[in-house]
Amino acid sequence: MGIQQVLSTIRTNIRRKIIFVAMLRQYVSSVGNFSSQYGANTSTSYVIANIIGEPSSYPSYGDFIQSCVLRTYGKWWKSAPEALQPLDNLSQRYFSCDDFIEMHFDRKTYITGINIYETYNPGAIVRILAFDESASNSSHQWFVVWEIKGGCPPVTEQSARIFSPLIKPPPFPTRVICIEFNSSNVAYYTELDAVELVGKCDVNVDDISLAQCIEGLNIDSDYEKEMLLTPQDSSSFDNGCFDLLPGEVIFNILSYLPLNDICKLAQVSTLFYRHCYNPLLPQHQHLNLQPYWFILTKSSLDGFVTKCKRIRSLRLSWCGAHNDMLNSQSLLQIVQVPTLCRLDLSCCALTDELFKSIIPLCQNLTELDVSSTLKYLSCSSLQVIAILSKLVRLNLYNTAVDTTCAMSIVQMCQRLQHLNLGACFYIHDYNQVIDKASSNCPSIKSLDLWRAKSLTSTGINYLAQRSKHLLSLDLGWCSNIDSQDGCLIELLKCCNALKKLYLTANRSISEKELMAIAKHCPDLEQLDLLGNSSVTLAGVQRVLGCCRNMVFLDLSFCGKITDEHIYHLAMQHSKCSIKNSHTQ
């Protein structure tokens, strides 16, 4: 539609009724779904809920407990021993979101602007979407109002800012937006203070909405045009000269295309339709649907059934929160393919009944991620995981798993090498779980016990005695571990292959533990000592001098370490990123 036609349509509709439009500015009133948070569910510090309301810290820059903070940050998460290998290189190239937050506002408006108050390490935001609650078609519910394409230039300015991207206004009123983040774009935690939605609301006489003014403009989302995930019959199209190309050449070309392009190409001709349905294509063997979570429907899954006869990994992270796409017979058909060994259901809107139907069909799974499903899956449904005896990797971060359930799982899944039990607040006795895990899973290599408040020196001693192959251990915010009884020193002696060790906010760390790290863990690459007031410059220097592979060291809020110390340490150890969080 040309610009003259657009203007003509608007003028015609405006003549019908005089519409008075008011600008409305509003802040977040509640939070819907989100992928992770730094703070505890029972706390008010560093939690996602802090995004609610007006700014409280801006224009100050720094680390504030009243900020909204995600758990992930920087590039180190992706290089840690427990890091997952990407499903495929294409997904990483075209989609690079680690976290998201869904935000709700009090009143629907036709949004014209979004102001995001970033008060620490800005630059992680990569995509913003708006939700249409009145959309009848589930694939048209979300509208991309802004996104970064082709990479994100780093933000070097260390100051608070109001990020106001140039958005593409959605053609509907909304009160729900979703912001997606790529933690690799920032060197440390990014913190948000508030999000302001600016929009127009009609205050006219006869309930004539602003939508009537733009009626007939036929504005569509770019994603609705670009990502046609449901293939159509293409038998009527001519193959052209592509018939002359060997099948191997076409296969090789297709292997470089993102999934949405494969789906579009299937509609071009009979030849491409046949090749695009080849189950051996890497996009179908490693099916990553997370980048398209906001447009997927039941029919989308239907289109993949015949393609996924050799599927090896399936990623459905973030899917299903606003439609019933997961309640599909096609999903059950896909997951029961015997070659499927990796299933990612992180922050997935599953029901207990559906989860209990899926897991028994996946007897060959070696990797399962059900993290951040606390609001969806009950402990009783998670119990079924225990039948997956071939599991090597299991992520239960922020789930409803309790002590009994966790013990049952580690009792039966004895091949586990990577286990995440972080922020599982229904586990009231982590010591029992660690006792069982260390006894039954002798090959454990990485263990995430973030905010395991019931963990004590007893659990640490179990690890020291039995888990000598540990490469990564996260004991962040495990406040009941008292290292003064020597439990951590014994752990360091026995687990001397450690490459990552997080002792965040363990107030009992002393010079003895630092000397033990330097002596017994020469291969250490990542060390978090945030909030340890007894850490001294001499101890840090000893660690850096002995651990020559160190690439990340967090000394934030270590009272005896000054900014001047950090400066000199960074000059002497330029290959190591040394963090010193602060508040202005």
TrEMBL record:
Q: Which GO terms describe its biological process?
A: SCF-dependent proteasomal ubiquitin-dependent protein catabolic process
GO CC annotations on file: SCF ubiquitin ligase complex
**Which InterPro entries does the annotation name?**
F-box_dom, FBXL15_LRR, Leu-rich_rpt_Cys-con_subtyp, LRR_dom_sf
Query: Pfam families per the record?
Result: DUF7885, F-box-like
Every F-box domain range: 239-273
Output this protein's name.
Fbxl4
What is the species of this protein?
Answer: Bugula neritina
